[in-house]
Design goal:
The protein has six helices and five strands. The chain has 151 residues and is of the alpha/beta class.
């Protein structure tokens, strides 16, 4: 779920069964799950509204992953995740072993992951790369170091 049409298209190319604009998400999830709700709802945006929506989209016994950082989520009521018996995960920091599955999937080359990179910058343009990474139009920004010298 994203407001960005090109990101929804990308998700479908990567195998998503259904995608939606946030305003249509409840209806799309209900239709895709025969009204049961999502088994997994992942909030990557990190706002109070998106975390609440992930909790509401998750079905009974589902899992919510709060990947985005929500500093002040005052509108969230624990009762909703309690009554639905949700599991809430908060992956705060990655450890080397957390990347093993991702590295294995990349090595299998079953998906064109290069299409996830929307911008590349040489190390000398680091400020531009950081600015681009804050732009919602970007997905993954890569900083290249080929031919760069240190010191």
């Amino acid at each position: 779920m994203t407001r960005s049409a090109w990101k929804r298209d990308l998700a479908r190319r990567f195998g998503a069964n259904a995608t939606a604009d946030p305003d249509e998400a409840a209806d799309v999830v209900a239709e895709a799950t025969d009204g049961r709700g999502a088994r997994f709802a992942i909030d990557c945006a990190g706002t109070s509204a998106t975390l609440i929506q992930a909790i509401r989209l998750a079905g009974t016994g589902g899992t919510v992953v709060a990947f985005g950082i929500t500093a002040h989520a005052t509108d969230i009521t624990p009762y909703e995740w309690h009554i639905k018996e949700l599991t809430i995960h908060s992956p705060r920091a990655a450890r080397p072993r957390d990347c093993d599955s991702a590295i294995e999937l990349c090595a299998q080359r079953r998906r064109d992951l290069a299409s996830l990179v929307t911008a590349r910058f040489p190390l000398a343009r680091l400020p531009d790369a950081l600015a681009a990474s804050r732009d919602p139009a970007q997905l993954k920004v890569v900083i290249t170091v080929e031919g760069e010298t240190c010191g």
